[in-house]
Write a structure and sequence with these properties.
Rossmann fold; six-stranded mixed β-sheet; two-stranded antiparallel sheet
Length: 273
């Protein structure tokens, strides 16, 4: 198993030196948003073809959808997973269909240890490589550059720098990616097609479990003994970064525990803007 890491170049600032010697205090450059990259735009013919494929696969099993995607796009096919129930179930299927698909996790530096441990268990259980793709700056430097934890002051920007920027970097190398979203998870996901064009990242997006329910996902996980995050048994139906995730109370929506106290409901991976 390999873990993707970014090499850090030393930062030199003229204001931190005196008489040619480094100042004893540390200095971290301010974080600036990278320019929005150019993404590929499909023509009308490709969009129509994708819509036709999605409609044709609407009643297909997840395995049939995965097989179709592998035949059409592998090896330019990838999957990002946060090891939610849906992601774990898809990985269990991919292990039988095509275990060489590039699987990665957006390792923000704020994940629960249980999530990182699950990554190791999944990789060992299915014999698959699952790469941890990390932001350019480690958490300590990132927080120093922003006057403290950005998830407290600007959660949208925190997700942008720790997730979106990294995802853009990885997806730029691929033609299609798998998603574990379900339509019943949130309003943003309610109209998700099985196969569609991801305008935000400029590639095909395939959601094999889009029309499944939470109950159906969990029945399959239990029946097939698919490894899953133990936090789900502790009141966390949806698990994100540790500082921004709490258990939910009885009767609350499954994503109510994400970004509590804010209007934020999505990290941005599956929204158009």
């Amino acid at each position: 198993m390999s873990i993707a890491t970014m090499s850090q170049k030393p930062h030199h600032c003229s204001g931190c030196s005196a008489s040619g010697k480094d100042s004893p205090h540390s200095h971290t450059p301010a974080i600036t948003a990278p320019p929005k990259p150019q993404v590929r735009e499909p023509d009308a013919e490709e969009l129509e073809w994708l819509q036709q494929q999605s409609l044709a696969l609407e009643d297909a099993s997840p395995e049939e959808i995965l097989t179709w995607a592998v035949e059409k796009y592998h090896p330019k096919l990838t999957m990002a997973t946060a090891f939610g129930p849906e992601g774990c179930l898809i990985l269990s299927m991919l292990a039988k269909i095509e275990p060489e698909v590039y699987i990665f996790n957006l390792d923000t530096g704020y994940q629960f240890q249980e999530t990182l441990d699950l990554r190791d268990r999944m990789a060992a259980h299915y014999g698959m490589e699952i790469v941890l793709e990390q932001p350019e700056l480690p958490v300590e430097q990132f927080e120093a550059a922003n006057g403290g934890p950005m998830y407290q002051s600007e959660p949208d920007q925190c997700c942008f720098h720790r997730k979106i920027v990294v995802l853009r970097r990885v997806l730029a190398e691929y033609d299609a990616w798998f998603s574990g979203i379900r339509r019943d998870q949130s309003p943003y996901r309610a109209n998700a097609p099985i196969v569609g064009w991801d305008k935000k990242f400029g590639l095909v997006k395939i959601s094999p479990l889009a029309n499944w329910t939470k109950e159906r996902v969990w029945k399959r996980i239990v029946d097939e003994k698919v490894p899953y995050n133990p936090l789900h048994d502790q009141g966390y139906p949806s698990v994100g970064c540790q500082p921004c995730t709490r258990p939910v109370a009885a009767g609350e929506h499954e994503r109510a525990g994400r970004w509590t106290g804010t209007a934020k409901t999505e990290c941005g991976l599956h929204t158009a803007d």
